[in-house]
Design a protein that fits this description.
Blueprint lengths: L11 H4 L2 H15 L5 H19 L2 H25 L2 H24 L2 H17 L7 H29 L6 H26 L4
Helix pairs in contact: 2-5, 3-4, 3-5, 4-5, 6-7, 7-8
Protein name: Energy-coupling factor transporter transmembrane protein EcfT
Main location: membrane
Subcellular location: Membrane
Length: about 200
């Protein structure tokens, strides 16, 4: 999960087309899962973190941007340690973390409307085959990206509520109420979409 995109810069990455950046992200994902050297994966992680810090305006904003997703990656890593050999679990962790940082770079340098437009163009063949309704793919991606900062805000509220009551913050005491809040928010958004006639 990543926070609100930062798209006000004028750097080289900001000027690239959304389709180009999304294609590069997809290619990077394929390459990463073909690489097994931990040294190469660590180098990729350092490079991705440096680029994200640059486009975000510093290390602190970069961590704020990617922190929610990185928490999920750490939980995923902990589970992998139970079922995979340690070197393999570390390699998977590094791959996924690099991808998360790369995705944060894309969202930080690309307008949401541009991403949605690219997704809609990619989905046209499926729409022609009747596998989905027009605009659904772009709408789904747009809502996911828009809900990310919402989820982060809900998480922060729950943490603050725990601390205000003198309770120790534990993942298992946060996840259930967070899931309920997110589902309620999703229902509210679905009702708003229906009320506005954005899709049949």
């Amino acid at each position: 999960m990543m926070s609100t995109p930062i798209t006000t810069g004028q750097g080289w990455l900001h000027r690239q087309r959304a389709g180009t950046k999304l294609a590069a992200l997809a290619i990077l994902g394929v390459i990463l899962f073909l690489v097994h050297s931990l040294d190469v994966l660590v180098a990729a992680l350092v490079i991705a973190a440096a680029i994200l810090a640059h486009v975000s305006g510093g290390l602190t904003p970069a961590l704020r941007l990617a922190r929610p997703a990185l928490i999920s990656v750490l939980l995923f890593f902990a589970i992998n340690l139970l079922v995979l050999p340690v070197p393999e679990a570390v390699a998977v962790f590094l791959r996924v973390t690099v991808l998360v940082l790369a995705a944060a770079i894309v969202t930080a340098t690309t307008q949401l409307a541009e991403i949605v437009a690219v997704i809609d163009r990619l989905a046209r063949p499926f729409e022609r085959m009747g596998l989905m309704q027009r605009g659904d793919a772009g709408l789904a991606v747009g809502l996911c990206l828009r809900l990310i900062p919402d989820i982060r805000a809900q998480y922060s509220e729950l943490v603050d509520a725990h601390r205000a009551r003198g309770l120790k913050v534990r993942p298992w005491t946060i996840m259930a109420p967070l899931a309920i809040r997110v589902l309620m928010r999703a229902d509210a958004i679905a009702d708003a979409i229906d009320a506005r006639g954005l899709r049949p």
